[in-house]
Design a protein that fits this description.
six-stranded mixed sheet; alpha/beta
Length: 376
């Protein structure tokens, strides 16, 4: 039998799945983020409000929230990094008579919250963008006829299997645009679960077998084909995938607000060489039709639940990203000078993705935090 205190604590918790359901169904809820400004900066719930009281709560101040004017007509969900400090905040709000909850396991658990957005192109081609909303990771399931392919899977394989089943698709191929460094790829795991081929660029440095792809190779599924374009720079094996001349899946080569960083696992001299490759790859992509939709593997912000498909056209990016209009020499200098801080977890994640297995690792802990793949 549960103790009364344990029952009360459990009653104060709300699961990430339940909060995601509330947001997806536009339920009125007040989300209060009690982390520090630095923690919240680029890894957050966009629907949340912020109150910088983390240190006060952690110090055990019992009256921190006593005089706050908070809504009484809707649930209040408190959020912190791991769900401990926010529990203290929820407890104080309950004592004030408010309908308060703490997000169970905090942002580390919210890191796996997701939603979808969908667009239909010519020939009944359907693209479902699957978004990890906190981290801004974007993966895709593309359906044509009775078949589907999945690109850059970053969530539990069951999610993609369920989406395929709901649309009466059979997943024929699963592919990664490159070997990721900011999250553990679930693509190989998904391919094994559904009996599909797992595809990577031929020269990818892995410790497991895969079905190799070459530059300009076409993969046929349903009533269409998707073309692989070798676009090195962010990584040597980076691919982009073009379908029907309308949609371009660019991985970490080209984003809607930046380009891929060329420095991971590289010193400055190597970064300059990779930046030169990146420049040439971007020229290849910019030569495509202006109305081609660019669908990247990330966005450099958290995603608001229910927002439309995240994309930009080649024409729009040519006009809005200053880096894309620079001559080669200046491009190299600017890209290398703008590189953001290196993620602390990238070496471990890169190693796991080369091995093709994450057994024994706590992904909630390992993947915590924003992505750092873009140079803006």
């Amino acid at each position: 039998m549960k103790s009364p205190n344990l029952t009360i604590e459990q009653d104060l918790l709300i699961s990430p799945a339940r909060l995601a359901d509330w947001l997806q169904n536009q339920k009125e809820v007040y989300i209060l983020d009690v982390r520090s400004k630095a923690e919240r900066r680029d890894w957050l719930i966009p629907e949340s409000r912020h109150l910088d009281i983390y240190n006060e709560l952690k110090s055990g101040h019992s009256k921190t929230l006593e005089h706050l004017d908070l809504p009484e007509d809707r649930p209040i969900v408190t959020v912190c990094g791991a769900g401990k400090t926010s529990l203290s905040a929820a407890r104080q709000l309950r004592e004030k008579g408010l309908d308060a909850y703490s997000l169970d396991s905090g942002m580390k658990a919210w890191n796996f919250a997701w939603d979808t957005a969908e667009v239909t192109l010519a020939n009944d081609l359907t693209i479902i963008q699957v978004r990890r909303v906190a981290k801004g990771c974007l993966s895709y399931i593309i359906g044509s006829g009775d078949d589907a392919v999945v690109i850059d899977a970053s969530l539990d394989p069951k999610i993609y299997k369920n989406l395929a089943r709901e649309n009466r698709w059979t997943i024929r191929y699963v592919m990664d645009t490159h070997l990721h460094a900011d999250y553990v790829s679930r693509s190989r795991e998904l391919a094994e679960a559904v009996g599909a081929d797992y595809l990577l660029y031929r020269q990818a440095d892995t410790e497991f077998p895969f079905t190799p792809l070459d530059d300009h190779q076409e993969i046929t599924f349903g009533n269409t084909a998707i073309k692989a374009l070798h676009t090195p720079g962010h990584t040597p094996e980076s691919l982009s995938f073009l379908i029907e001349g309308e949609a371009l899946f660019t991985g970490d080569t080209l984003f809607t607000n930046g380009v891929g960083r060329p420095d991971l696992k590289a010193d400055r001299q190597q970064a300059m060489r990779k930046a030169e490759q990146l420049y040439e790859s971007l020229q290849k992509l910019l030569s495509l039709e202006e109305n081609t939709r660019v669908l990247p593997a990330h966005i450099a912000r958290s995603v608001r639940m229910g927002e439309p498909v995240i994309f930009a056209t080649i024409g729009e990016l040519s006009g809005s990203l200053d880096l894309l209009g620079l001559p080669k020499k200046q491009f190299l200098q600017e890209v290398v000078s703008r590189i953001p801080p290196t993620p602390a977890n990238y070496q471990t994640i890169s190693s796991l993705n080369r091995k093709g297995s994450h057994d024994g690792h706590d992904l909630e802990q390992l993947e915590a935090g924003a992505n750092r793949c873009a140079v803006g």
